[in-house]
Amino acid sequence: MPVPMSLIIDDGAPLINVYWWHAAEEQGSDAPVQKSGEPVVRDVAPDFLRDFVGVISRNGIRGKFSVLPYPAGLGKITEGWPGCDVSALKSWVETVRTEVMPRMDITPELLTHAKTLDLKTFRLLDENERNWAAHQTAATLTPYIATALRFLNEAGLEATGVTSPWDLGKEVVAEYRCAILAAMREVNGRGQTWYFLDANYDGTRFLSEVVVRDGRHWLVSIVSQCPDFLWQTMETQETSPAYVRSTADLYLTEDGQKGRLTELFRAGTPMVFHTHWQSMYSNGRRTGLRVLDEVGRRVQALWGPQVQWTKCSELAREVADGRW
C-alpha cells in the first residue's frame, strides 16, 4: 500500500504577508525587519499564487491550504480592506477555489491570525487570537470558529477542517476540540473532521490520531512530523541553485539516502509536513517555492507509486478508519 504524503500550508492570505503583522507586533514597529536586518515585505505579489499552483500541479502535491477569512484584522476576504485591489482579491479567491481546492483542503487559520475580532462590534481586541483563546471555553470558541467557517463559505471556500494560528488552543485543548466539532457541524454539517495544531519531529512513530469519537462523529488531530526548513529562506538573500538543492536535502537528498522525509518513508510512516506562505515567498525572492518544487521532483523521481499525495481530510478518514 502506498504511504500517504500530505503538505500543510499555513498563513495563506490574499495579497498580504500576514507575517509582517506578526513581526510588527513583536518588534513594536511599523517597519519590522528580518533577523538579517532586511525589511519584512508587507505584500505578496498576486502572481505568486499562480506560481504556487504550478508547483503543486506538476508535482501532484496534495494536502491543506489555509485561507485567513479576515486577514490580519483588515477586512473580510469577500469585501477587501482600505487600499486593497478588489479585482486582484477576487481573482486570488477564484484561483484558490478553482485550482487549489481540487488538490488541497481549505481551512481557516481562525479569523485574523492577529488581533482577536470582537464578533459583536467587529472591532479588534487588544489580545491576539492565541492569547485570547487561552482563557476561553467551548461556548465562546464555537461561535468564533463558526464565523471563520461562514466567511470562507461566503467566498466559496468550504473548509473541511480547522488550523490553529500559532499554538492556539494548547491551554484549553478539550474545549477547543469540542468547539471545532460543534462549529463544523453547525456551519458545514460535518460530524467527521480534523484540525492541525501539533508538530513533533522526534522519532518516526505516526502521531496523527483520533482525539474525539462519539458514535459516527470523530475529530482527528493531524500532526506534522517534519520542520519547516523553508523558513530559513526568509532570512537570506542566497538564491543560487546550489542553495536550493542544499535546502531540499534537508527533506530528502538527491539519492534518497538522507533527510527527514527519508526517515519517515523508511519507517513506513505517513509523511505529514508543513510550511508557511511566507516561507515559500521568501521575502519576495520565492526561493522557498523553488525548494518545494525540487522536493516534489525528487519525491516523484525516487519514490513514485510508493507514495500517495493525500489531502489532510483523506488522511484523517484513513486514521479514523484504523488504517494508520
Q: What does this protein look like?
A:
It is a single chain. With 324 residues, this protein is α/β, with parallel strands linked by helices. It has one domain: Alpha-Beta Barrel (TIM Barrel), CATH 3.20.20. It is built from 11 helices and 11 strands. The protein has helices at residues 18-27, 47-59, 86-100, 129-133, 138-154, 173-188, 241-248, 260-266, 277-281, 287-302, 312-320; strands at 3-10, 63-66, 104-107, 115-117, 124-128, 161-163, 192-199, 209-214, 217-224, 271-276, 307-309. The strands form 3 sheets. Strands 1, 2, 3, 10 and 11 form a 5-stranded parallel β-sheet that branches. A 4-stranded mixed β-sheet has the order 6-7-9-8. Strands 4-5 form a two-stranded antiparallel sheet. α3 (86-100) links the parallel β2 and β3 (104-107). α2 packs parallel to α3 and α5 runs parallel beside α6. The protein is globular. The termini are close together. The model has no long low-confidence stretch (mean pLDDT 97).
> Can you give the helix content as a percent range?
25-40%
Give start-end ranges of low-pLDDT stretches. Answer: none
Q: Number of helix segments?
A: 11
Task: Give helix and strand order, one letter per element, not per position.
Answer: EHHEHEEEHHEHEEEHHEHHEH
The total of beta strands comes to 11
The outline comes out as globular
Tally of discrete structural domains: 1
Instruction: Output the radius of gyration.
Output: 19 Å
CATH superfamily: Glycoside hydrolase/deacetylase
Question: In terms of structural class, how would the helical and strand content be classed?
Answer: alpha/beta
Residue-averaged pLDDT: 97
Question: Termini separation (Å)?
Answer: 11 Å
